[in-house]
Amino acid sequence: MDKLFIRGAVIVDPLNEAASSLPDSDILVVDGRVEEVGRDLSDIDAEILEADGLCCAPGLVDMHVHLRDPGQTDKEDILSGCRAAAAGGVTSLACMPNTQPVCDSPDIISYILKKAQAADARVYPVAAVTHSLGGERMTDFAALKSAGAVAVSDDGRPVPTAGGMLDAMRLAAETGLPILSHCEEMSLTRGGIINEGEVSHTLGIPGIHPAAEEAATAREIALAAATGCPVHICHVSTKGSVELLRDARRRGVPVTGETAPHYFSLTDDLLKGRDADYRMNPPLRTPVDVRAVIEGLCDGTLSAIATDHAPHTPEDKADFLKAPNGSVGMETSLAAGITFLVREGHLSLNRLIQLMSAEPARLLGIPGGTLRKGVAADLVLFDPNERWTVDEKRLHGKSQNCPFKGMILYGRVKYTLLGGRLVYTDQ
Predict the structure, then answer these.
(1) What would the pLDDT profile of 100-129 be if each residue is shown by its tens digit?
(2) Is 308 annotated in the active site?
């Protein structure tokens, strides 16, 4: 029998209020599963990990990750992406389908799952809504689910028509797959590469109007309200989208939404330096939008925090105007949440972990998000007060396009365990 005894931790478990925030607690792990959580436990036969007052929480569940595998493994691959995940306390992740070839068949699902068997995090494939992300012919949702897909999305591109999205939502509801929507009305983007506003006008660069996101968000809400089919809105970034979601949820429309750390902490002012590492889609917005996103997290309008981890090589990002969108974020997500949400008094640490672990697991219908007896021992131990500077050259993935580079953050992951196995140690 394989045993691990974690001694002297502060428990953070959003699904177990009685245990949460208890200091000097112990966790006994037996054969990769949580056996017991409490004070003054003992087991002389177990290997001991001294927590020394570190917080111990269920491993983070990142429901929006681009692993670039298959097809663009110079940017990231399944194994390197999961090393980055482990370094950030992420033990489960959902990988988006815009790979090359697109994840639109059971064969690609099988490839991902087979390669992920040796990875440092659990990988859950998200399959494409339409073949080759072309926006026309639906994939076989039932076959994809049988192969192991946990959701469907055409992320990276929106489903182009309301009729197509309606068909997809109905099919997703019938097969029991969550549908994750990339909300972007392409007729309103007009070649923009950053947020349309003061910064884009100053730089003389085409901007993406907030209405591009908001019009598409309104479309999905209207479809969900009319049909009762649930839909999840990806990477919410604007005040208008938050307000649309808030109103819809108050009316009982089956819609949820996520945001990413850069949308509750950074603004488009960073683009003045013409550094493409700060270019992503949706783009960084204004301080007004940042405040609205934070309010959406505080009042429950937004249900989850995900990273939209999107690796690109330095060569990809060298030309500000031509660079692809995207930034990496799994190694900084917990620290960004602690720095900009918990330390600023917006959220409790328990609520942050709920948004980054329990809620994403619930939305995807996968295990995770708690330290209750019997669950897989997917754990993160971290020091919420440790101050550190983000060095993009020391990240564990293949790419360095991190929007938090050079910033001082609080909250450092010290250990990550996957099924009781130590997959990351801060050294």
Answers:
(1) 999 999 999 999 999 999 999 999 999 999
(2) yes
Q: Is the confidence at residue 347, as pLDDT, over 90? A: yes
Tell me the pTM: 0.97
Res. 204 pLDDT band, cuts 50 70 90:
very high
Buried b (16+ CB within 10 A) or exposed e, 5-42: bbbbbbbbbbbbeebbebeebbbbbbeeebbebeeebe
In order of 181, 186, 243, 244, the CA distances from 219 in angstroms are 11, 13, 14, 10
Evaluate if residue 21 carries a pLDDT over 80. Answer: no
Query: Which residue is catalytic, options 308, 316, 378, 383?
Result: 308
For residue 124, report the phi and psi dihedrals to the nearest 5 degrees: -120, 110
Residue with tokens 């429901």: 63
Collect all residues with Cβ–Cβ distance below 8 Å to 16 and sequence separation of at least 6. Answer: 37, 370, 371, 372
pLDDT at residue 336 in the model = 98
Residues 37/50, Cβ–Cβ less than 8 Å: no
Contacts of 87 (CB under 8 A, 6+ apart): 330, 331, 395, 396, 413, 416, 424
Tracing tokens 């790419």 back to the chain, one arrives at 399
SS (H, E, C) the chain: CCEEEEEEEEECCCCCCCCCCCCCEEEEEECCEEEEEEECCCCCCCEEEECCCCEEEECEEEEEECCCCCCCCCCCCHHHHHHHHHHCCEEEEEECCCCCCCCCCHHHHHHHHHHHCCCCCEEEEEECCEHHHCCCCECCHHHHHHHCCCEEECCCCCCCCHHHHHHHHHHHHHHCCCEEECCCCHHHCCCCCEECCHHHHHHCCCEECHHHHHHHHHHHHHHHHHHCCCEEECCCCCHHHHHHHHHHHHCCCCEEEEECHHHCCCCHHHHHHCCHHHCCCCCCCCHHHHHHHHHHHHCCCCCEECCCECCCCCCCCCCCCCCCCCECCCCCHHHHHHHHHHCCCCCCHHHHHHHHHHHHHHHHCCCCCCCCCCCECCEEEEEEEEEEECCHHHCCCCCCCCCCCCCEEEEEEEEEEECCEEEEECC
Q: How far is CA 343 from CA 23, 258, 300, 346, in A?
A: 19, 21, 19, 8
